[in-house]
Amino acid sequence: SDVGCQGDRVVTEEEWLHKWEVGNIGFHKEQGHPLLQKYLDILLNGRSGLRIFFPLCGKAVEMKWLADMGHSVVGVEVSEQALKEFFGEHNLPYSEEPVPEIPGAKKFQSTSGNISLYCCSIYDLSSSIVGKFDGFWDRGALVAVNPRDRQRYVSLMINLMEKNSSYLLVTVSYDPNKHKGPPFYVPESEIKSLFG
Ligand code: SAH
């Protein structure tokens, strides 16, 4: 098929946590992503003080960039280690508290208040917990979602969209029969049918 042999593959949460533990995080970009710089104007569209969502955020440095520009950033990530590394590497003091609506989840918030990172599965979130967003940075997120969960993931993203929101999505084109990842190949036709 056009997704090669990736269709039935699953990367479990435990496997992600393990990648973080052993430092197998080749996806992390120390210098941030050039495509966010390139398309920043499309994301912001002249607006200031936006709420911006980072699904499957890892320790993406772009969260710091956008917060420094005066936006308010919310991310979600299963690895607590990733979130602690994010605050540590940017010398940002933070607080940690439980999330009443989600058993076992934690919310890490910068003391300045403009970065809130949820440690839980993306599928535990809803707009009643995190609100809606004006902008989205989806890099290493849709392409990391297990193919069987894509529709659910995209429905959630649509549910989190404020009117007139902008969604920047980064995918990678390659021959899925020749390469194993980044984790999953998402053809453009599928993106169109998922997002409508
Ligand atoms: N967007 C980040 C990280 C990409 S890698 C970046 O650009 O660097 C994908 C990340 O998603 C990993 O850090 C992994 O731990 C996390 N993850 C995987 N499944 C998840 C889920 N169901 N909910 C939340 N985070 C998840």
Automatic annotation (TrEMBL):
Known EC number: 2.1.1.67
Q: Which Pfam families match?
A: TPMT
PROSITE patterns (alphabetical)? SAM_MT_TPMT
What this protein catalyses is:
S-adenosyl-L-methionine + a thiopurine = S-adenosyl-L-homocysteine + a thiopurine S-methylether
Q: Keyword check for Cytoplasm, yes or no.
A: yes
What biological processes does GO assign it? Answer: methylation
Record flagged with keyword Signal: no
A Gene Ontology MF term for this entry?
thiopurine S-methyltransferase activity
Identify the enzyme class: transferase
Kindly state which keywords UniProt assigns to this record, in alphabetical order.
Cytoplasm, Methyltransferase, S-adenosyl-L-methionine, Transferase
Cell compartments where the protein resides: Cytoplasm
User: What do the Gene Ontology cellular component annotations say?
Assistant: cytoplasm
Q: Which residues bind S-adenosyl-L-methionine?
A: 16-27, 56, 77, 121-122, 139
Gene3D superfamilies to which the protein is assigned, alphabetical: Vaccinia Virus protein VP39
What PANTHER family does this protein map onto? THIOPURINE S-METHYLTRANSFERASE
Q: Which family does it belong to?
A: Belongs to the class I-like SAM-binding methyltransferase superfamily. TPMT family.
Name by which UniProt lists this protein: thiopurine S-methyltransferase
Q: From which source organism is this entry?
A: Brachypteracias leptosomus
Q: Which gene encodes it?
A: Tpmt
